[in-house]
Amino acid sequence: MNKKIWASLIDACFKGRFLFLLVSLLGYLILTPLFKGFVGIKLLLSIFTTAVFITTIYAVSQKKHFFVIGSLLAFPMLAATWSTYFANIPFLLLVGDCFGILFFAFAVVNILSFVFKQHEVTLNVIYGAIVVYLLIAMMWALIFSLVESLQPGSFTLAQSQIQNSNFPFYYYSFVTITTLGYGEITPVTDIARSFAFLEAVVGQIYLVVLVARLVGINIAQSIERRSR
């Protein structure tokens, strides 16, 4: 009996894995700037970054080898994040960004595969679709950070802001993927511009395909109910 209860509890927690990831992502994006005046922004970003990576690994760990791959990809990024408190090693930060990009790409493909294999629209599917959109923006933020590191001056952004944190790149990524384009941060070099419009295109295509998929599933569900 205890084993059944424990198994049911684990199953319930695993079904809510996308909700946990969504909460950690929103916490990172919303609470970080709100607490900037109370807690060191760098430490806060490190904590939320760790939380995001842990919940992302949990979200994609439905199979053991996915958990192993996710952990291996996440470790260099987390090591680079926390190593800055002991030593400033630019090369390690570059490596961390590269692995962070691969990690988010792996998570996006994994979760997106789950979402598009479903034949019923549930809350878990909706949560999964939302976190994919947010993870795409997070991945592109690291791409922008990597571009700026390899080619300083790729964006019209004060160097002091970049040194304090990569949060401006996350802001710019979400502004770009939603095609708001406020204009405070602008790409200057060709490679930066290419990645910027590519993110905007990918974001819009994702929304169009996602809506079409979810609407199609919903219509199929309605037809099936009526035929019973």
Secondary structure layout:
Elements: H1 2-15, H2 17-34, H3 41-59, H4 64-83, H5 90-117, H6 123-150, H7 159-164, H8 167-177, H9 190-227
Describe the fold and architecture.
It is a single chain. The protein has 228 residues and is mostly helical. The chain has one domain (2-227). The protein has nine helices and no strands. It has helices spanning 2-15, 17-34, 41-59, 64-83, 90-117, 123-150, 159-164, 167-177, 190-227. Helix 5 (90-117) runs antiparallel to helix 6, helix 6 packs across helix 8 (167-177) and helix 6 (123-150) packs antiparallel against helix 9. The longest helix is centred in the C-terminal third of the chain and has 38 residues, at 190-227. It is globular and about 65 Å long.
Distance between the termini: 36 Å
- Helical content, roughly? over 70%
Main beta sheet, described?
A: none
Low-confidence stretches: none
SSE ordering: HHHHHHHHH
Rg from alpha-carbon coordinates: 19 Å
What form results from the Cα inertia axes? globular
**Count of separate structural domains:** 1
Number of DSSP helical runs? 9
Oligomer: single chain
Q: How many distinct beta strands?
A: 0
